[in-house]
Amino acid sequence: MKHALLLLAVLLALILSGCGGDSSAASPTPTPTPTPTPTPVPQCSVAPAPSNPAGGGGTPAQIQIDPGVYGTADTSQVTTFAFDQAMLYSAPLDPELAQLVPDIDPRAWQRWDRGGILATDYNAQAPTAAHAQGTLFIGGTTATALFRDEPIFQQAATCNAAGQLVPHDTSASPLYRGSLASPQYRDYLVQIGEIQIDEGVDGLFFDEVQGDYNGATYDGNEGFDDAHIADFGGYLCAKHPSLTPDQWTSQFGILAADRLDCTLPAATRGRGFDYRGYMARQGFATNPMNAANPLAAEWGRASNSRVDLSSGSFTITYVNLVYWQDLILRLRTYARQKYGKEILITANGILPFVDFQMPNTYEYNSDMPDGSTANYLTVTADGHFDGTLSWQVPLQQFRKVSRTLMGRDVLMTLFIDWPGNLMNSYYQLPLQDRQDYMRAFTAESYANGLLFSLPLRTSMPGDPSAGDLGMMALFAQLHAFYKSHHTLYHGGTDISDPATASVQHLMLNLVGLPDGSRVLHLVNHNYAAGFQTQTNVQVSFPMPQQPASVTLASPDYASDQTVPFTYVGGQVQATVPQLVSYVAILASASAPAPASGKSRPAGDVSATGRPVLRELTR
Question: What gap in Å lies between CA 126 and CA 132, rounded to an integer?
């Protein structure tokens, strides 16, 4: 969650609540006061780990990965998502969540500041009620946001390259960052996760995992505490094991006074490195990411929540493969040993070791393949939804980044992050436009392999809920459709062979399903003050064998429709009589399943008919 706007609002409220007075009264002569002694800038004091990671640490190829860090829960029946974040950990289940009954609420509890650090802060009635209706209930915490009133502050707050704490705003209670390199801070986060597991959550969501390296002005001047720097020294020694002292000096400007000793055993080599002293001597204490700093590229910038390990830099490697791995392994182990169960792990972004990815959509992104910004909600000059544009390129890029990171496809869901302009723009749309946006964006997400999280309620005071916005009837319709057609959205593989349609301005995505069937997704971007219905849309797409049947499924239809088709030269050809917002064209490799694809393997559902987590064979 983007904290800056929230803290600004709090500060503004404090300013506006100041007391007024009678301006006609004479002002008393002020009593001279001595000039106060400047308060020293507080310093950080984060204790390092006693040793380098197992094996000595280093680059991604050198970091040891414990197999236990991977989850084994079967998520193949988790199809409908709706986020509904409770403002109170003791609150009952939100009536809107009870009304919609999604498969999962991926962000139901989210610890912030001191709220949620004690077991007495929680009441298990919400997760218990969610389980009774068959909804998976995900707790969580911010991974790096830290405040002065938290008990771990003095031992965990990270600092800039000059050794100073880094407040991220000017409020009375500014936000700082907790150092994930600190074993004590990771203990703190693990304890919070264990409390929530004890209260019955099915998994944990982590926000702002890469926040340590932002800097107060997003210049990267943060994360330079003793714990990070000790690990950085170990990383340098592991990455460059054959450099002589003269070569360290010639290549990086490192002198004996900087105390980088790579002759020590793997567990302790490099951990005495005085990187802050090095930067002070080189003139980089106020701008450590300056390209002229010989070690800036080695340190790196782990600020993008869409993780790409290819640079192999220190911060990108260690926050994702060392610190994150440690947190997740310990939490999974706790749940397995104490309760004999698998928990689901996810985070804001695209990260390793998760059970499902949860990238956020927001205005300050670099989600296009060339690093430019994707616009997730285009609004016309007069404030209406512009439905003519497709989101397929950034959505496919999300899957590519995740596949590269994980080595395989995993379950993914998108959500609109808050607070920010994107969510505010969604709120401000006229009702029909807001509904059309949800119909189009949800369809395009599912069609491209990302299962969208319907927005029910954020944690922001004063934000409207889905019910307040008049969205619950549409959300119920969308939930019912995607749930009843779950087989179309799990286990698919995008087919690169071209598919065609007789109408322009459609998003097309052809997907091969595990049973050999193929489904062609069409999203209609012929839009002007509403979807422009297309009739008799002729489609053609490749398939290795003749299908047994062709069926049309759409949230715009009262029921699925079987249509005639031809199969010539390896191409399936069919006609869609009516396309409003979205249709999935299923070419079944075998006889069609029971109505709307509702069948699922025995053992995958609870007594309520809702999905349950099954453990896969390790």
Answer: 10
Mean pLDDT in consecutive groups of 10 residues from the start of the chain, 618 residues:
45 36 36 43 83 96 97 96 88 96 97 95 95 98 97 97 95 96 98 98 98 96 98 98 98 98 98 98 97 98 93 97 98 98 98 98 94 96 97 98 96 96 97 98 98 96 96 98 98 96 98 97 98 98 97 98 98 98 96 44 33 36
Cα angle 50, 53, 58; round to 5: 125
Q: Which residues contact 17 (CB under 8 A, 6 or more apart)?
A: none
Predicted TM-score (pTM) of this structure: 0.89
CA angle, residues 113, 205, 9, in degrees to nearest 5: 40
Which residues touch 513 (CB under 8 Å, ≥6 apart)?
487, 488, 491, 492, 519, 589
DSSP 467-484: TTTT-HHHHHHHHHHHHH
Distance of CA 499 to the CA centre of its chain: 32
User: Which residues, listed in sequence order, are joined to residue 146 by a DSSP beta bridge?
Assistant: 176
Q: Parallel, antiparallel, or unpaired for β 534-542 and 518-524?
A: unpaired
Contact call for residues 518 and 509 (beta carbons, < 8 A): no
Complete edge-to-edge strand list for the sheet that includes strand 534-542: 500-501, 534-542, 571-579, 565-568
Planar angle of CA 475, 105, 521, nearest 5 degrees? 50
* Euclidean distance between CA atoms 262 and 266, whole angstroms: 8
Cα–Cα dist 388/405, whole Å: 32
Antiparallel, parallel or unpaired: β 534-542 and 203-207: unpaired
Q: Which amino acid is at 78?
A: V
A 10 A CB-CB count for 490 gives: 16
E-strand spans in 403-543? 411-412, 415-416, 453-457, 493-494, 500-501, 506-512, 518-524, 534-542
Identity of the residue numbered 525: H
Using CA atoms, how far apart are residues 168 and 253, in angstroms rounded to an integer? 32
Cβ atoms within 10 Å of 49's Cβ, excluding its own: 19
Length of the chain as a residue count = 618
